[in-house]
Amino acid sequence: MEKATALVTGASSGIGYELARVFAEHGFDLVVTARREERLKELASVVPQGCEVTVIPADLGKAKGTEKLVREIESLGRPIDVLVNNAGVAASGPFQAMRSEEVRQILQLNVRALTELTHALLPGMIARGRGRILNVASVAGFHGVPGMSLYSASKAFVLAFTEGLSEDLRGTGVTVSVLCPGLTRTDMLHDLKDLELAAPFVATARDVALEGYRACMSGEVIRVPGLMNQALVSWMQYQPRWLVRTVSGIVSRTTLNRP
Q1: pTM value?
Q2: Which CATH number do you get for residue 225?
Q3: β-bridge mates for residue 6, sequence order
Q4: Using one digit for the tens of pLDDT, what is the confidence trace for 153-199?
Q5: SS3 (DSSP) at 236
Q6: Catalytic residue at 17?
Q7: Which candidate in 17, 151, 213, 238 is catalytic?
Q8: 259 belongs to a structural domain
Q9: pLDDT, position 176
């Protein structure tokens, strides 16, 4: 029998890089995509022997990026058994101060590309009666985060989309999971401002990837890695939204946007 194949977006670094390695270590062949082809080739050189890695450079931050990627995947002539929607971008600071390009990038990568790629590959999974999808969101998706309002809204979309889709797919043989990490040591974290005070709570990309793999393979719908993150999410779910919003605003003003 042919080995199963996992497609991982944003696989050139961080959580995506580690997710690709974890799937390879568990016997999957890989299709990996990101903008930086050299980083993808580096990934291909470190996976276990016997893992076939197909590198497809693509910029999902561009409007036609997903369409181009889907055509490349179709030309391979083999099914995608697991789709890992990891590609994304973060930005901090007041929404009104963001550049138009930053706004477009967050919406394109975090929302549109993930949705379009899922919509393109899901019919084949349903027709085969099997498949798994892992979407990467964030604990920021559980509530609005002042100073990161658009980013947290984009991850709230991913969280809600995954939950609804999981019920739509009941009985099809296809499962969908969402991974909601907190602060993680990745390149994306370097783009955020003034987060040194949170350093003791920053997870490694490897640990987060392992949690994501386990959730995906078990069909668990929502996985929040780390006890601190789980406690935070639980606290937010049992508090009035105005209180969560107010506390978040105070934290934001004293960290992300301090003079």
Answers
A1: 0.89
A2: 3.40.50.720
A3: 30, 82
A4: 999 999 999 999 999 999 999 999 999 998 887 765 554 544 554 55
A5: helix
A6: no
A7: 151
A8: no
A9: 98
